Amino acid sequence: MKAVSSSSPMLGASQPATATALMVRSGRSEWQSSCAILTSKVISQEQSESLPVPPIPGGFDHLNGHNSAAARVPGMNLVPIEKSDSNPLVPQHCHQPQKPLTMTDLSPAPMHGSNLRVAYQGVPGAYSEAAAGKAYPYCQAIPCDQFEVAFQAVELWISDRAVLPVENSLGGSIHRNYDLLLRHRLHIVGEVQLPVHHCLLALPGVRKEFLTRVISHPQGLAQCEHTLTKLGLNVAREAVDDTAGAAEFIAANNLRDTAAIASARAADIYGLEILEDGIQDDASNVTRFVMLAREPIIPRTDRPFKTSIVFAHEKGTSVLFKVLSAFAFRDISLTKIESRPNHNRPIRLVDDANVGTAKHFEYMFYVDFEASMAEARAQNALAEVQEFTSFLRVLGSYPMDMTPWSPSSSTSS
Ligand SMILES: O=C(O)C(=O)C[C@]1(C(=O)O)C=C[C@@H](O)C=C1
Asked: pTM for the full model?
């Protein structure tokens, strides 16, 4: 299946840049409106993303579907889906007789992912596809050639959710997705942590001694760095877009001197053999993915929640201690802190007539903390954070992935 790609001017840089400008201008009201939505007491649908359910074996192998809609626009595989009777996601036109709402309509059965279209970056066999299946069993997984395309697929209603990696226990943060979270207007509605079990794959009959090159996603290469050396592989290491894409590339080009770092499922799909199994540098290798949607979910207090925010301050890092103390005073644990360049203002010059000009780098700070936006202590902490920051946005308040720990095994991914 071909991945959704962005080759259209509609998907160019101008749209996200405009969104960023808007975001920074409306900084303060931004998080307030997010909080208002998040903490409102409206009767809500019981969100499936509140309850990540383990995938049912065999239930996630029907990949489908964006192609028919996408094929309509030459040179671009993304189009907004027009309103039509056949599209259940789009309101019907009013000329049709409308049925009155009933109590049943107000409490629909929880959806556990069926019928959801879920965008991920990569091709079938990628870990991101497995993460989409863990987050939404029975979903229609939609492969996208870039992270940016997965964001836009949701924004343009081609997909209902995106599932994207943000950090790995060995390889660290996937910075691109932090930047995209800020540029786009989607909400984090859940997280999944996926044990990542890497294999060394090659065409049938190829032996390790024949190899001159190993290709994979940069994270795959980073996660297996030491094991590759221990295996005595004196090979060039080359980065490609995704792990399964590396396997597909070897098969498509009949490369007998190249191996891929990818999943056992990718070996199956692309007809490769497993030369080495479990080559990640640490057995408990885990990647954390976030689920993104157009609307936030209603935060709750009956299960552990996490909240993700991003903030900046005109005076840069000097404010960081004050911001973090707002959480410490309320006994709120932070689970992650990340900084990225502030693309709107990368450098701040501070002139001192006596000693010259200091050039400070400016950052955006991303913080995840263990509390729900439905809790007063989280709302109070953010009210205080707001006092110290010039920009603050709640990226989402969502259930923590609490699935029991199962170390990576060749069958899990
Ligand atoms: O290349 C893949 O298979 C992916 O799904 C991407 C990705 C990543 O971006 O970190 C996801 C999980 C693993 O950590 C390795 C790669």
From this structure: 0.76
Q: How far is the C-alpha of 353 from the C-alpha of 161, rounded, in Å? A: 53
Q: How far is CA 243 from CA 13, 41, 113, 214, 282, in A?
A: 26, 43, 25, 11, 18
Domain containing 73: what range?
45-77+111-194+287-297
Residues 264 and 120 in one domain: no
Residue 210 CA to residue 180 CA, distance in Å, equals: 40
> Do 322 and 336 form a contact (C-beta atoms < 8 A)?
no
- Contact 217 CB / ligand 1 (< 6 Å): yes
Whole-number Å distance between alpha carbons of 1 and 123: 8
> What separation in Å is there between the alpha carbon of 205 and the centre of ligand 1?
27
pLDDT digits (tens, 9 = 90+) for 116-155: 999 999 999 999 999 999 999 999 999 999 999 999 999 9
Per the residue annotation, which of 147, 289, 365, 391 is the catalytic one? 289
Domain boundary among 279, 310, 332: 279
Cβ of 220 closer than 6 Å to ligand 1, yes or no, is: yes
* CATH code, 353: 3.30.70.260
Q: Rounded to 5 degrees, what are φ and ψ at 105?
A: -60, -30
Note the pLDDT of residue 31. 47
Residue 128, ligand 1, Cβ within 6 A: yes
Atom 10 in ligand 1: residue holding the nearest Cα: 219
| Any atom of ligand 1 within 6 Å of the Cβ of 307 | no
Same domain, 132 and 188: yes
CA distance 385 to 304: 22
